[in-house]
Amino acid sequence: MSHTLPATGIAGALRQPLRTTRAIVRLDWVDAAKGIGIALVVIGHALGGLIDAGIAPSADWFRPAMLAIYTFHMPLFFFLSGLFLPRRLESGPRGIAQRALSGLVWPYFLWGSVQILVIHAAGAYVNAPVRDLPGALTGMFFSAPPSQFWFLYVLVLVQAVSVAALPLVGATGMLALSVVLRVLAPDPLPIVLSFGVMMLPWFALGCLFGARGWSARLPGLPARRAAGMALACAIVLGGTTAGLIGSVGWDGFSTFKAGEIAGLAWSPEGTAAALAGITAVVLLAARCSGVLLDVLALLGRHSMAIYLLHILAIAGMRIILVNLTGWTDPMMILLLVAVGLGGPLVAAWVARRLGVARLLAL
User: Which residue numbers delimit the Acyltransferase domain (predicted)?
Assistant: First the structure.
């Protein structure tokens, strides 16, 4: 999930000044945006786990918060993943395929299998036990990516489509075609194809953003204009979330499980919230600085490790707190989020110290 622009220069530089030459440039705002995004992923899954476990505050804000987060947090990651594909096409399909195999396919099968085995071993302690272990493992190949790992599976698919389409129709054409496909796609589709059709427009939007060079110019946006745009985005996000809840009624929504909330968030009616949320995060990331930038960039640079391991960390802590200690205070959400972010960071640090970070995709 790196985002360097290939060329000459000091490889791996974190804060190298932007140049018009082909120096390797790591854009701080992209790291920060990924940091915000991965924090939202962890918060969303922590909320979902507590909801499915029957734990929520009496004035239930868990469900609306999860709905708002889910409207845009995964579209955000597809957008960010598409930013640098137009430039990476210069390395040819083989280079992109090699990156996908090592950076997406290998961690998908490694940690997806580990997570399935751990959940199977946990039995009734988890919210969704794995009872058919052979079926769960074979389902990884074609039909049923485990939990959060659908993102890696679908990202491989949309990258493959984009590598084929971009040279033929360009970034603008690919965005247009992806929107048409989203509107006209038959329903239902197999889950990975359904997610692919759903997320391809956001990936294509990232490709267009990157192809036009807007990624590099974004930090120069005036602060007042950025603040006004972010406020407008927050209003759209809040209004769309309220509208989604209203479409099913609060009485019905208050009984929704995490999967139902995600389904509502990713309905076509949530498109405005997705666009608003992506825009707000990008604007915030482009304007932040100092310690906040450092913290968000740290999370962003380790977003893959956090994505791979956070479910194990969150679910493990929730099982300990609820089933072994009997603590069911909804505010355990704070501890779950801290563990979901901090645990994978520690694991990645240990893997680097042991020299196995690449092998473990951390």
Answer: 28-348
100 is written with which tokens? Answer: 């996908």
CA distances from 336 to 132, 212, 299, 339 (A): 28, 40, 16, 5
**What is the domain count for the chain?**
1
In which residue are the tokens 């390797």 written?
24
Determine, yes or no, domain membership for 23: no
Q: By C-alpha distance, which of 234, 348, 246 is closest to 299?
A: 348
- Determine the structural domain holding residue 69 and report its residue range: 28-354
The answer to whether residue 35 is domain-embedded is: yes
Residue 75 lies in a domain: yes
* Residue 143, burial from CB neighbour count under 10 angstroms (0-12, 13-18, 19+): exposed
Cβ-based neighbours of 49, under 8 Å, separated by 6 or more: 127, 258, 314, 315, 318, 336
State pTM to two decimals: 0.89
pLDDT in tens, 146-157: 989 999 999 999
The Cβ of residue 151 has, within 10 Å, a number of other Cβ atoms equal to 20
Does residue 26 surpass a pLDDT of 80?
A: no
- Convert the pLDDT of each residue in 36-78 to its tens digit: 999 999 999 999 999 999 999 989 999 999 999 999 999 999 9
Read off the pLDDT of residues 161-203 as tens digits, 9 standing for 90 and up. 999 999 999 999 999 999 999 999 888 888 899 999 999 999 9
